[in-house]
Amino acid sequence: MDFTELVKDNVAIGRRTFLRVITSVLAFVGTAKAGAQSVAMGLPLPDELIEATMKRLFGNRTLQPGAGRIKLDLPLIAEDGGNVAVIIESDLPLGGATHLNHIYIISDKNRRPMLAKFTFTPESGKAFVSTSVRLATSTDVRAIAEMSDGTLYAVSKNVRVTISGCDVPPQS
User: Fold this and answer.
1) pLDDT over 70 (residue 169)
2) Bridge partners of residue 159, in order along the sequence
3) Is the CATH number of domain 50-161 2.60.40.2470?
């Protein structure tokens, strides 16, 4: 008795049922694998602490003072944490051997501290960012510039938030 006869005699399963089972199994395996890969690829975890975010993004590289290289413009008091204007300007070069690759906006007390990442190319013309972010509570907001050689320049400013811009209470 070969395998096909065994299957025909002992298993009475329709083609559609078989396809549904196979599809369900593949979907489950794909979802489990994607979840494991998201942590391995450096994606944020829910309620990630600032130390974990900095380690995930920059490893053990040290942050150098960015005063004079990066200008971070934020309000001192944000009446609504749901819409805080941020302007970042930099005179760091966008071309050449050592050039600006990325600017990160990081909030120390948000559930997910990395608020934004901007990538620059020589075609960008100028390193300028104007956006709005959500802040959970009064916090330091950092702008970190990453150069092509791995050098990091950082500036920060404290923002006092009167009304939280996030539904979930911030980390302490």
Assistant:
1) no
2) 139
3) yes
